[in-house]
Amino acid sequence: MTPEPDCIVVGAGLAGLVAACELLDAGKTVTIVDQEPAASLGGQAFWSFGGLFLIDSPEQRRMGVTDSLALARQDWFGSAGFDRAEDHWPKRWAEAYLQFAAGEKRAWLHEKGVRFFPVVGWAERGDGTAGGHGNSVPRFHITWGTGPGVVEPFVRQVQAATATGKARLLHRHRVDELIVEDGRVVGVRGEILKPDAAKRGAPSNRERIGDFELRAPAVVVASGGIGGNHDLVRAAWPERLGTPPDFMLSGVPAHVDGRMLGIAEAAGAHLINGDRMWHYTEGIQNWDPIWQRHGIRILPGPSSLWLDAHGDRLPAPLFPGFDTLGTLEHLRRTGSDYSWFILTQKIIEKEFALSGSEQNPDLTGKDVGLLAKRVGPGAPGPVEAFKEKGADFVVADTLDQLLAGMKRLSEVPLDTELVTRHVRERDRQLDNGFGKDLQLAAVRGARAYRGDKLIRVAAPHKLTDPKAGPMIAVKLHILTRKSLGGIETDLDGRVLGADGAPVPGLYAAGEASGFGGGGVHGYRALEGTFLGGCMFSGRQAGRAIARTA
Questions:
Q1: Does residue 166 sit in helix, strand or coil?
Q2: Computed from CA positions of residues 266, 272, 274, 280, in that sequence, does the dihedral angle turn out positive or negative?
Q3: How confident is the model at residue 516 (pLDDT cuts 50, 70, 90)?
Q4: What order do you get walking across the sheet with 30-34 strand by strand?
Q5: CA distances from 90 to 81, 149, 477 (A)
Q6: How many domains does the chain have?
């Protein structure tokens, strides 16, 4: 008979792996159960761009960026907008996470072999106010190796521990129930699913071939959010973001299904802030999909002209890369499920990055030669592939040809005269080195940061300039991604009940816990905070269990 472990971790994603590693570091034993095949070890984090939020890092200082804990706190709380009684623990988690990001986070990762691309990105540039939403400075640190590079040290440690018997990895084990005895969670029950050779992220079967029951003094729920379950996304969709879209792309695999949230609630967990969520408006259909409705997010620079489905320009400061949820709210209130970028070849070459490890072979593969091409002429290979093969791209030599192509992809009437007016008005602002267009002012301001000028923001130019062409239009869809609410926890990751008291034996980490406390981001995130939230919450839970096991 296999000895009872010190802890069971439900979910083999980043948060679960980090919690397991902390327990292993403390000499404890751990069993990890996950419904997916071994190919999907590492969960959603593997697919990520590997962006991590750090404060006053050496990378920032080398790029001429002055950052501080006080400025980051101002940005975080200005973005979060905490305004509920349930935000007690989320606010405490936010304070703790900021201290972590400004303190030992980088050294802790560095010790594990994680390294960073030297140019720091500037994500979520904000709503135009000093105290409001957004990052005042660049803080998006791209991991050398992207998502796989973030996951690798924790996967390596867990796999090494399985060889010595300190850890067990049980794939194809789907938890259906948390075992509660005398008010304490003492284990898990569920179904053993039929083996499946599905590649990473692809759908796997749900055929039951047996049952299992496992017991341990502590259980960590690290099962992720609801982004792959569009029914749950629509059910939780808040009125403040308008009506939920009829059509959405999925930025996560189908197994990100939210099942464990209801299972944890049945065992006494308190779920909070379920209406807080993070979805992108710059999704494009993957021409080579791995899962159903597989979407990729464009990580845009600030220069593309952004129009709603009818052809009207989005208001300031809803520029590309500035305010994700503000843009989502505005677009949903226009009543259509998509929008448009209009840009040029010159812009796409410098400003289009694609989220996802598989879309960045240079960074993911740590290929310096391939990486060098980013500063040379031409767009990165994956971007060019989408331009040539993607269903959402229109490429044309003239504005009239571009408009004809946009009309072919439109599901609602496109006002071509309105689009033409917006393009002409914007281009006239470039007859001088000054003007009143706030987006062009933002572009010029961004280029004052050497990282943006080097690899991220094109020099201002007219969209109709043939020397910058061809012209390009991109149809953008809403892309599901992250749950910002979840299981309420204290700073040790202990799951709290509706009465505010811990549920004995039960812990939560990662997206299942709203990345800590049931909603550490509040209403809005600053980007680069999701992977870090998985690691920090998993670390907190693992260390707390190790102290008591």
A1: coil
A2: negative
A3: very high
A4: 167-171, 30-34, 7-10, 219-221, 502-508, 494-496
A5: 11, 28, 30
A6: 2
pLDDT digits (tens, 9 = 90+) for 392-425: 999 999 999 999 999 999 999 999 999 999 999 9
Together in a domain, 41 and 167: yes
- Burial (CB < 10 A; 0-12, 13-18, 19+), residue 385, is middle
Sign of CA dihedral 523, 528, 534, 540: negative
- Whether the CB-CB separation of 290 and 199 falls below 8 Å is answered with yes
**Distance between CA atoms of 343 and 395, rounded to whole angstroms?**
10
- Please report how many Cα atoms fall inside a 13 Å half-sphere around the Cα of residue 475, on the Cβ side: 25
Domain membership of residue 263 (yes or no) is no
| Cis ω before 470 (30° cut-off from 0) | yes
Of 221, 231, 300, residue with least CA distance to 261: 221
CA atoms within 13 A on the CB side of 161: 25
DSSP string, 354-374: E-SGGG-HHHHTT-HHHHHGG
Are 466 and 411 found together in one domain?
yes
Using CA atoms, how far apart are residues 490 and 504, in angstroms rounded to an integer?
A: 13
Distances (CA, A) of 98 to 75, 104, 359, 394: 11, 11, 30, 42
| CA–CA distance, 72 with 89 (Å, rounded to integer) | 19
Per-residue pLDDT, 184 = 98
144 touches 9 (CB < 8 A): no
Contact between 391 and 85 (Cβ < 8 Å): no
Same domain, 71 and 169: yes
Residue 187: strand pairing partners? 179, 215
Per DSSP bridges, beta strands 167-171 and 30-34 are parallel
CATH, residue 55: 3.50.50.60
If you compute the radius of gyration of the chain from its CA atoms, what whole number of angstroms results? 23
Q: For the segment 218-253, what is each residue's pLDDT rounded down to a tens digit?
A: 999 999 999 999 999 999 999 999 999 999 999 999
Q: Which residues contact 248 (CB under 8 A, 6 or more apart)?
A: 230, 233, 279, 283, 293, 337, 477, 478, 479, 480
Q: Which domain holds residue 373?
A: 281-479
Verify that 535 and 425 share a domain, yes or no: no
Query: What number of helices (H) and strands (E) belong to the chain?
Result: 18, 21
Size of the chain in residues: 549
Banded pLDDT at 347 (limits 50, 70, 90): very high
Quote the DSSP letter at residue 313. B
Distance CA 265, CA 185 (A): 12
Collect all residues with Cβ–Cβ distance below 8 Å to 61 and sequence separation of at least 6: none
Which residue, chain included where needed, has tokens 């070849």? Answer: 345
Nearest of 337, 339, 334, 346 to residue 319 by alpha carbon: 339
- CA-nearest of 272, 274, 281 to 325 is 281
Distance, in Å, from the CA atom of 436 to the CA atom of 267, rounded to the nearest integer, reads: 58
List % helix, strand, coil for the chain (3-state, nearest 5). Answer: 40, 20, 40
